[in-house]
Structures are given as C-alpha cells and as structure tokens.
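INFO  loader      accepted 1 record
INFO  loader      residues=197
INFO  predictor   begin
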Amino acid sequence: MYKNFYIFRHGQTDYNEQKRCQGCKCDRLLNETGATQAEKLATYLSNFSIDKIYTSPLKRSVQTADIIAETLKIDSPIKEENLREGNYGEVEGLTEAEINTKYPGLFEKFCNATQSNWDIKFPGNGSESKRQIFERAYAALLRIASLANGENIAISTHAGVIHALACGMDLWKVNYDNCAVLHIQYDSVTNKFRQIF
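INFO  predictor   done
INFO  writer      dumping tokens
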C-alpha cells in the first residue's frame, strides 16, 4: 500500500523577509505575504484529496496548517514535536551577514551540508546538526505512516527539516521556498520512501 506525503515549508514570516536565521527558538507568526502563500497552497493541495494534516508545533507552521485545514474542511492539524525546526544555538535571530562575521564560512557549510559533513553544528547549548534533525523528523514520518491507512497526508514544517530529510534520503531538486511542496510516497511493503516531485 502506498501513502502519499505532501511536505511543505510554512508561509513567510518577517524573519524570512529579513533573511534572519529562524530556528525553533524564534517562534514567529506569518506575515501578510505568508498568510496569502498559505491560502494559495491550500488551493493547490485541494487537488490531492488530503485526509490529514500534521504540523510542527511552532506558530508559523501551525498557522499555515490551520489555514489549509480550514480551506480543505478537514480535521484540525495534529501537532508533532519532531517536525519542529532545528535548534541553531547562538545564531538564531541573526542575519546571514551577521553569522558570517561571527563564524566565517559556517553558515554556508551548514546550509549546504551533505551526509559527509552533516554533523556540523552552530555554537550553543542544544544546537542540532542536520543528522540529528533528520533522525527525529524521519522517525516522525515513519510513525505517521504507520498510523495512516492509505491516506494522503500533508505535513507543515520548516526549511531546515526539509533539507535534513533531503540530505538523509538523497532526494533531488527539492524546493525550499515558503509553501513549496515536496511529494514523497511511502511503500508499506518495503518501508521505504521515494520522491514523486
């Protein structure tokens, strides 16, 4: 049996617009553009008979999921702690330029990490690597898949989570823009995911 996952990044926040690092400790709401993006995403997802929606517990992700659930007239989103954005330690709230001044080269290495260097972290207590984000997010997807009966599932999460999944699952041509959709399919016989688009 195949189970379809439509995974997307939340709508835009003011921190996205300002190009600030927005980890799990920066719990911002959507801005006006972000709310509009979520509404457009809901219209797009209406083509896929979404049965359930799971979301990171962070406000920007929940708000995006709420707009979609209301538009699609499906049950309220289910919060899943392990879909939250990564903890980026001391760099949360800083712009890319500020991070590069403080920690030259680290931002680019982290953002472009592959499995060969995905244990890189930003300084700070509790800071997570791409590998750590992948391990918890992938476990969450497997758990959700085990609960679904041939359902089409929407997942509202974050760019850092989607990049970690792409890195750990060797996915190709993934779009990390606000409200962009990654479609993966779970095969309950092989217990594996494959990318559709």
